[in-house]
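Folded chain entry
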Amino acid sequence: MTTALGQFQQAFAQALFAPQTPESPQSADLKALVMQPAFAVYRNTVMKACIDALEANFPAVLRLVGNDWFRAAAALYVTTEGPRDARLLHYGEGFAGFLRDFPPAAELVYLPGVSQLDTLWRASHTAPDAHAVDAAWLAGHTPEQITELALRPHPAARWAWFEDQPIYTIWDSNRRHTATPDPLRWEGEGALLTRPHDTVIWQQLSRAGCALLDACTRGVPLAEAADRALKAEPQADIASTFAALLQAGALVADGMWPPPSAKVAP
């Protein structure tokens, strides 16, 4: 690709989302193209594809605000941030931030967090496969060995803590199309999404659980990770928290073979 061709293609792509043609060395040629009726049809087709992708990528947000509100907001988002990846399943990485600064959503303080969990669901869905640590594999180690293990989050594990907001409860009910609890306890919640097998699963996660996974990301031994989790939530039951992470398939061990609980063929 020549530099001139690359500049033209970049300007053409920008013109699809911008109301006016950006200045460029090819601006005269590009303006001629933009003025053609067919370009408006093409622009509308691209815009609709992007809005449809956002609608599919953020089902919990869509259910909360309704179709008309969502598509109007999505249309504005598309003009500020077009797709960077041809796979539109990945489109909308900045949508949570957009909603946080979107004036019509000012009173919907939970909406960016819900959007973030929709984004994490897609990240978990498309992450690489890996064999998760389970209780059977762990049972082959002494207590001393376990404390020195440097387990890491599963490639598909995603988690987040939301201070002072019941984001997980709101997201979960709208993702499953069930009623949100009434009354809703307005307090901080955490969320864990994993995909140990074929399907993304999710559950509520304590502050200690989030802190433990944060520590495991840094590759520290389990004993140190547990200490960090207790500092984040002094009253936490670390044994129960760790067991929940194991059951969710949220942890892996480097160089682990055979896979946990796997039977090696003779």
